[in-house]
Amino acid sequence: MHATQNTVAEQVTTPARTLRDAALYLSRHGWTQGAYYDATSGSFTPPACLVGAVGMVCYGGPVDAPAQMFDAPEFADFAAALTYLDWYLALRFADSQYYERLDNAYDFNDAKGQTADAVIAVLNAAAGAWDRANGGAA
Q: Which superkingdom does the taxonomy of this entry point to (predicted)?
C-alpha cells in the first residue's frame, strides 16, 4: 500500500444499523401481520412483519424462518438485533397493562390494533437507544 492511499474502514453492523434498515425496509415495501412476509405480493421485496423485515435486512431476501437460520453467517446480526429489540420492548412496556403481549418483537408486531407507523417508530427508537448506550451511531 502506498503511503498516500487511504484504507477503507470496514462497515460495522450494529443492532442499531440493522433496526434502522428494517424500519426503512418497512417504510419502502410495506408491513404485514401474522406472517413473516405477504406471500400474495409476488415480489422479491414483499411487505414484511417486523421480524421478517429484520430478516430481509440481514439475509438479503425472504427466508422461511429467519430465526432458524443458525448456520447462515448473517444469523449473528439477526440474533443481535432481535435480542436487543426484545430487551428494549420489555423495558418500554414493563409498566404497561399490555406487558405480557408486547414484550417481544413477534407479539409487538402482531398485537391487535398495531400499525405500521408504530412498528417503524419502535424500530427507530430502539436503534436510538442502542446508539446512546453504545457511544453513538457506528
A: Bacteria
Domain count within the chain:
1
> Is 35 a domain residue?
yes
State how far the Cα of 48 lies from the Cα of 4, in Å rounded to an integer: 46
Residue 9 lies in a domain: no
User: Shortest CA distance to 64 belongs to which of 23, 56, 82?
Assistant: 56
pLDDT tens digit string along 54-73? 999 999 999 999 999 999 99
- Asked if 69 and 63 touch (Cβ cutoff 8 Å), the reply is yes
For residue 66, how far is the Cα from the chain centroid? 11
Report the pLDDT value the prediction gives residue 125, as an integer from 0 to 100.
97
Contact 108, 50 (CB under 8 A): yes
> Cell numbers 439475509 label which residue?
59
At 113, which amino acid appears? G
Q: Name the helix (H) or strand (E) containing 106.
A: helix 105-110
Q: Is 104 part of any domain?
A: yes
